[in-house]
Amino acid sequence: MYKVLHVEDDEDIRAIVDIALSFADDFELRQSPDGPSALKEAQTFRPDLLLLDYMMPEMTGSEVYTAISAMPGMDNVKAIYVTAKVGEGFADELLSEGALKVITKPFNPMTLPAQLREALLQEEEYLAAGARCRRC
Predict the structure, then answer these.
(1) Could you tell me the sign of the dihedral formed by the alpha carbons of 98, 18, 41, 84, in that order?
(2) Which residues neighbour 18 within 8 Å (Cβ) at sequence distance 6 or greater?
(3) Phi and psi for 80 in degrees, rounded to 5?
(4) What is the dihedral of CA 48, 37, 111, 87, to 10 degrees?
(5) HSE on the CB side for 24, CA within 13 Å?
(6) Whether the Cβ atoms of residue 50 and residue 19 lie closer than 8 Å to each other
(7) pLDDT of 41-88, one tens digit each?
């Protein structure tokens, strides 16, 4: 089972993700409305995957990812962004910073669990092939 911490400031999107992942028995979901609360939640929940909005007040998704992955024992946490921010090279920038995947809003909640599984499986295969990690 994968422990997923979803960080999103839009309450409606948090509800959609909650419903989408509630039908998947391989994800345990916790949600936070902003970066500071996500940092607190991560300390006790110890997620395997961060599902991050990029544009949020107080902290961007990248800042949340950096802060959580700097916590003791959290250096291997994975990140997938679900964001409305699109632009030439933006997704490539997030991927180069270590994100497993970038999903553009609006997204299909019916395919979200499969997209998360696929990204996590690809990362596991990548690591099994002898790579250290994407951010290293």
Answers:
(1) positive
(2) 6, 29, 31
(3) -130, 130
(4) -100
(5) 22
(6) no
(7) 999 999 999 999 999 999 999 999 999 999 999 999 999 999 988 777
